[in-house]
Specification:
single chain; 450 residues; alpha/beta; 8 strands
Length: 450
């Protein structure tokens, strides 16, 4: 009997060696079970029902879609720095996400962030947006049923439909989706103008922020923090030599290829991983200038048959044409003091390619455990207290890893996400192109400036 049992055991042990693929029958269900368990208990997974009670109302924007003066509106901030967030949502039938996902992500923004919001959306989404926002200050503008209806794009529908032709090299987004990308400078300028007229509030700064920026549990409420934004502008003025009213802030994904030192205006938008268009803004004068210059070059290149259906390549080109106007932040900045101090004591970063940022769910970066590198600008613009709370939250996360990843991750240091410096665009570009580089000549006159 014993010998028969031994024989059976030997046969069982030999079977996987002779048929290694049979192990997949066991491994796959176990892997799926572990993945689903992690997904359920992941502390950064967006909540299906927002669990935090909305903070008390500190200001109000009328729900009217027609601007009207309101001198009695209570200011949001207690100091002289008032900030407006402009955003919007135009659902697309071509979207890869469900409406349920969008509502969850909107909740993490509109229910949690207390800063004044001006929001563009179609009529049929107004009640949903208002319900999510609750008693927090918001102005909902339902003037446009599609982003193609905004004044700068009204006469461009045919061109945008041609950009969606299947034989086009940039095929992949519908005309409406491309228009959403192009409409952000208009929405920011228009939202700021309308909010100021309606409330009588003189906002010092306004920023466009993508409505789906917040996709995981977070601690952001008073965001962007007024004192932090003031600090960023103070540093930007010091480093750039520009007036604060002329500076625009953009986060950076990377640096352009060194060959772009030879780029000129006639070559059109630059398709490099460089700018991020999810968040940008500044003071009213800079916002008005950005609207003018963006659509001047948008129309200039479109009329010459050059593709302008993506916002980032066009932004990249304007960075090179007007570098002195821009400040920003780059998580992967290799010479930033905050990064060099961490890189020096973290051997795991020895092969890190600073010119090609990590995947969006990479937990370890040159600045520590900053979770989604694309959205580092949220951390960068947060208050000291909220940054500390979020850094602690990120340190306590665990992500799914395949067994072969455990070997490379076992010695990775757990460092809290940290703040880095403000970059001037001119300084950053000269580091890539050389100190002798100068911005290309411009041919368009916009707002009295070449």
């Amino acid at each position: 009997m014993a010998s028969r049992a031994v024989g059976c055991t030997s046969a069982i042990l030999r079977f996987p060696r002779r048929n290694p693929l049979s192990l997949l029958v066991l491994i796959i269900p176990v892997a799926l079970l572990l993945y689903s368990t992690f997904d359920i208990h992941n502390p950064l997974r967006y909540a299906r029902t927002p669990s935090l009670t909305a903070p008390p109302l500190r200001g109000s924007l009328s729900p009217s879609t027609t601007p009207s003066p309101n001198p009695s509106a209570e200011p949001l901030a207690t100091n002289d720095t008032r900030i407006l967030l402009v955003s919007g949502f135009y659902p697309s039938v071509h979207s890869k996400h469900s409406l349920r996902d969008y509502k969850q992500w909107l909740s993490l923004f509109l229910l949690r962030v207390t800063t004044d919001v001006y929001f563009f959306t179609p009529d049929d989404w107004e009640s949903t947006v208002r319900e999510i926002r609750g008693d927090l200050p918001i102005h909902i503008n339902t003037t446009f049923s599609s982003s193609l209806d905004i004044p700068p794009l009204q006469q461009r529908r045919e061109e945008y439909e041609l950009m969606y032709m299947p034989d086009h090299e940039q095929y992949g987004h519908s005309p409406e989706e491309r228009a959403v990308l192009a409409s952000k400078p208009y929405f920011l300028k228009e939202g700021l103008s309308n909010a100021r007229a309606e409330t009588g509030t003189e906002y010092k700064y306004a920023f466009w922020v993508d409505a789906m920026t917040f996709r995981h549990k977070h601690a952001w409420q008073h965001w962007p923090a007024p004192e932090r934004v003031d600090d960023v502008w103070t540093e930007g003025v010091k480093e750039s030599g520009m007036k604060s009213k002329d500076l625009l802030f953009f986060p950076l994904e990377g640096m352009p290829d060194s060959s772009m030192s030879l780029w000129s205006e006639g070559m059109g938008p630059i398709n490099n991983r460089f700018s991020e268009g999810s968040f940008f803004g500044g003071m009213p004068d800079a916002i008005a200038w950005w609207y003018d210059i963006y659509f001047a070059y948008h129309d200039h290149w479109l009329e010459r048959g050059i593709f302008v259906g993506e916002d980032q390549p066009l932004i990249n080109a304007l960075f090179l044409l007007y570098p002195s106007r821009f400040i920003g932040v780059w998580l992967s900045d290799p010479s930033a003091p905050a990064a060099t101090s961490l890189l020096a004591k973290s051997p795991s970063f020895s092969s890190y390619d600073v010119f090609h940022p990590p995947p969006k769910l990479q937990l370890e970066t040159p600045l520590g455990q900053c979770f989604e590198s694309w959205y580092y600008y949220v951390f960068f613009m947060g208050s000291e207290a909220e940054r500390a709370a979020v850094a602690d939250l990120w340190l306590g996360t665990w992500r799914w890893m395949w067994p072969w990843e455990w070997v490379t991750q076992v010695n990775v240091r757990k460092e809290p996400c940290r703040l880095t410096r403000v970059l001037t665009m001119e300084g950053a570009l000269k580091r890539v192109f050389g100190e002798g580089w100068h911005s290309p000549k411009t041919s368009l006159t916009v707002g009295g400036h070449l």
